[in-house]
Specification:
Blueprint (H helix, E strand, L loop, with lengths): L5 E5 L10 H10 L5 E5 L5 H8 L4 E4 L16 H6 L4 E4 L2 H6 L4 H13 L3 E6 L3 H5 L3 H12 L9 E5 L13 H18 L7 E5 L4 H8 L6 E4 L6 H12 L2
Parallel strand pairs: 1-2, 1-8, 2-3, 3-4, 4-5, 5-6, 6-7, 7-8
Bound molecules: 1,3-dihydroxyacetonephosphate (13P).
1,3-dihydroxyacetonephosphate (13P) binds next to strand 8.
Length: 247
């Protein structure tokens, strides 16, 4: 079994009910068989999006709590996401690691909770610019993988997204060789640790656009993308999905 190809959109803190019209557009224009499509809208829109798309695309949350319920104001349990129609949860995004000081250990706990609720955990890793400049990229990625990915991970319940922090929302992307180096490292680490680690899908994220998607998808061990800004408009996300489907 080869890793499944996945085009994933992370809407971050963008969108209202009116934005779901973009998804209608996407469904009518572009739904290419040949890759899976996931949209992770703000939590307020998970249920409406799932109801509207009826399984034609997957819907995910952008975070979940490690506990199943309780006194955690403002947080969302994995089972609540699942109840609202989500099948995935992005975990450990660099914006969560920065804005909410999430640690690898906390991300791992969230991933276990996601798995227990039947969700696929989309676990994010990535170096800062200072870490890259200091030659620490591979060590940082190795440590984040070791710390954030739980022992219960399988190819069926886990996706890893490599998102260099300095490439997110900046219009800057690593060179193809830099992406290839990190993805090869991730494949090695996961294959060494998990029986089906060779089949865990590896996404690249950070300034993926219609104009660079095909080139990025041609890089070995890149099985899809986690797309921020360009996932908000069907006219941008559609061509990215199409590029992945034919890779
Ligand atoms: O953070 C990202 C997806 O999770 C990437 O965001 P951009 O595609 O806007 O750079």
């Amino acid at each position: 079994m080869a890793p499944r190809k996945l085009a994933a959109g992370n809407w971050k803190m963008n969108g209202t009910l009116a934005s779901l019209a973009e998804i209608d557009q996407l469904l009518s224009d572009h739904l290419a068989p040949g890759c899976d499509v996931l949209i992770c809208p703000p939590a307020t829109l998970v249920h409406a999006l799932a109801a509207r798309t009826q399984g034609k695309i997957a819907v995910g949350g952008q975070d979940c709590h490690a506990k199943t319920s309780g006194a955690h104001t403002g947080d969302i349990a994995a089972a609540q996401l699942q109840d609202a129609g989500a099948s995935h949860a992005i975990l450990g995004h660099s914006e969560r690691r920065t804005d909410h000081a999430e640690t690898d250990e906390q991300v791992r706990g969230k991933a276990v909770a996601a798995h227990e609720a039947g969700l696929v955990a989309v676990i994010c890793v990535g170096e800062t610019e200072a870490q890259r400049d200091a030659g620490q990229t591979l060590d940082v990625i190795s440590a984040q993988l070791a710390g954030s990915v739980p022992d219960c991970a399988t190819a069926a319940n886990t996706v890893i997204a490599y998102e260099p922090v300095w490439a997110i929302g900046t219009g800057r992307t690593p060179t193809n060789d830099q992406i290839a180096e990190v993805h090869a490292l991730m494949r090695d680490r996961l294959s060494a640790r998990f029986d089906d680690g060779a089949d865990i899908a590896l996404l690249y994220g950070g300034s993926v656009k219609p104009g660079n998607a095909a080139e990025i998808f041609a890089i070995p061990h890149v099985n899809g993308a986690l797309v921020g800004g360009a996932s908000l408009k069907a006219q941008d996300f559609g061509p990215i999905i199409a590029a992945l489907a034919v890779t």
